[in-house]
Amino acid sequence: MTTYAVGDLQGCHEEFVALLERLDFDPRRDRLWLAGDLVNRGRGSLDCLREVMALGDAARVVLGNHDLHLLAVARGGARLKRKDTLDAILAAADRERVLDWLQSRPLVVRDGDTLMSHAGLPPQWTLDQAEPLAAEVAERLGGERAGAFLEQMYGNEPARWRDDLDGLDRLRAIVNTFTRMRFIAADGALDFSAKEGLDSAPPGFAPWFQYPRDDDPRLLFGHWAALEGETPGSRVRAEALDTGCVWGGALTALDLESGARISVPSRY
């Protein structure tokens, strides 16, 4: 059995199928970790969702910010944005089945000291803290108040985590950390303005993986295509998976045992 971790699909269905073929992926034998953002920007978002769903228990998926945006549009009253490519999902005959499946995905998956989330893990949170925090959001998404939460999920405040946060502020801070984090300050405050490479860091901020930790987990993340799969200056075992397929880069799988990376080129 081989376990692969794959970066953001973002609707790159043709490349996803090509990557699975190159890996000789067999769901009866192998396992696949997907770092979120299965949808949006690419032309095959609905097909990506159906393809991953068909893999059943062989695929473990975390939610990314674009996945949550889809849920907010479909079930929280949010508006589509100009560059969104979600219409096919919203119009699909099986949309409710697909959306139910997506909404039941977690914010993190973990195996021992390996943890994957869409955006990473800040140094202030241990693995044992991360899982129950993610579970708080999963509980809300699986409950009767999910629609109200999705409607109010957006926002940049609070920008810094505190253990005494509660209610919507607490849930929003958890979601923002796991799905939107790039640059942070030494006190854990998140910046939401800079989205490009490392040279776009605002004063007083640095990539989350350049801060030391007291433990030594293996952290898998997507979300940051501008890194092109690299983590320069990292002070933790962080492995970037998003190699910008939808932006003309590649779709990449990381063999979690050997560390080998296997990519297929973008068709965009």
Automatic annotation (TrEMBL):
Keyword Flavoprotein in record: no
Family annotation (Pfam families): Metallophos
Keyword Hydrolase part of the UniProt annotation: yes
UniProt keywords, alphabetically: Hydrolase
Domain Calcineurin-like phosphoesterase: 1-134
Cited Gene3D superfamilies: 3.60.21.10
Xref: InterPro entries: ApaH, Calcineurin-like_PHP, Metallo-depent_PP-like
Reaction(s) the record says it catalyses: P(1),P(4)-bis(5'-adenosyl) tetraphosphate + H2O = 2 ADP + 2 H(+)
EC number: 3.6.1.41
EC class (word): hydrolase
CDD domains named in the record: MPP_ApaH
Functional description taken from the UniProt entry: Hydrolyzes diadenosine 5',5'''-P1,P4-tetraphosphate to yield ADP.
NCBIfam families for the chain: apaH, PRK00166.1
Protein family per UniProt: Belongs to the Ap4A hydrolase family.
Protein name per its UniProtKB record: bis(5'-nucleosyl)-tetraphosphatase (symmetrical)
Organism per entry: Halomonas halophila
Gene (name only): apaH
